[in-house]
């Protein structure tokens, strides 16, 4: 571990505890609390720095991005770009917000209540930071997110039931409730929550 005191490493991931995984030229990887690390901007001759240093990245901090749906594809894309962790599985197909763009153009994306480092090829832009979406009122953003969710079928009937109820789609709720594989206790939780808010 002595090399960590004298050698500059490269951030290659963030673990489930939000600790930073750093790879060193020796090939060793060490995990650190972010408070003990210092960012080092190193530009070698002939290299161009992109992303956080004002380069040509197609993404900006604040952009809404959607994570790739394809598990096998994202595992390949993440090699050398923060790597793949099984804890990232819930983020597949989800929309998050770019928090930071690293010098190698990798993206720190807040998604599903946590932050992960993604290869920019593993996400697609949903909306730009400076677009009308980020400047819109909460109501307009709510409408746009509603449209986004309406077009996606998750395959999880319980999730579809919750979405339909949240969107006020009575016909879809009724159709889903007729299916034997839907957990009706989810609806009971929603109704209890609504009744508590009304009372």
TrEMBL record:
The gene is LOC109686303. GO terms for molecular function: transferase activity; zinc ion binding. It comes from Castor canadensis. This is E3 ubiquitin-protein ligase MIB1-like. One of its GO terms (biological process) is endocytosis. PANTHER family: E3 UBIQUITIN-PROTEIN LIGASE MIB1 (PTHR24202:SF53), E3 UBIQUITIN-PROTEIN LIGASE MIB2 (PTHR24202). Pathway: Protein modification; protein ubiquitination. Residues 1-37, 59-123 form the Mind bomb SH3 repeat domain. InterPro entries: SH3_15. Pfam families: SH3_15. Keywords: Metal-binding, Repeat, Transferase, Ubl conjugation pathway, Zinc, Zinc-finger. GO terms for cellular component: cytoplasm.
């Amino acid at each position: 571990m002595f090399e960590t005191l004298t050698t500059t490493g490269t951030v290659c991931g963030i673990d489930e505890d939000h600790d930073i995984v750093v790879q060193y030229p020796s090939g060793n990887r060490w995990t650190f609390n972010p408070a003990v690390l210092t960012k080092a901007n190193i530009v070698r001759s002939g290299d161009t720095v992109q992303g956080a240093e004002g380069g040509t990245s197609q993404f900006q901090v604040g952009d809404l991005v959607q994570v790739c749906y394809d598990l096998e594809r994202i595992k390949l894309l993440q090699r050398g770009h923060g790597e793949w962790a099984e804890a990232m599985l819930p983020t597949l197909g989800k929309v998050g917000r770019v928090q930071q763009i690293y010098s190698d153009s990798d993206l720190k994306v807040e998604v599903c209540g946590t932050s992960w480092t993604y290869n920019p090829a593993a996400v697609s832009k949903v909306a730009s930071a400076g677009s009308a979406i980020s400047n819109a009122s909460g109501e307009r953003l709510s409408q746009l997110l509603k449209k986004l969710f309406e077009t996606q079928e998750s395959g999880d009937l319980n999730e579809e039931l919750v979405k339909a109820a949240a969107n006020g789609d009575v016909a879809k709720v009724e159709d889903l409730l007729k299916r034997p594989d839907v957990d009706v206790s989810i609806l009971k939780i929603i109704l209890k929550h609504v009744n508590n808010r009304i009372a």
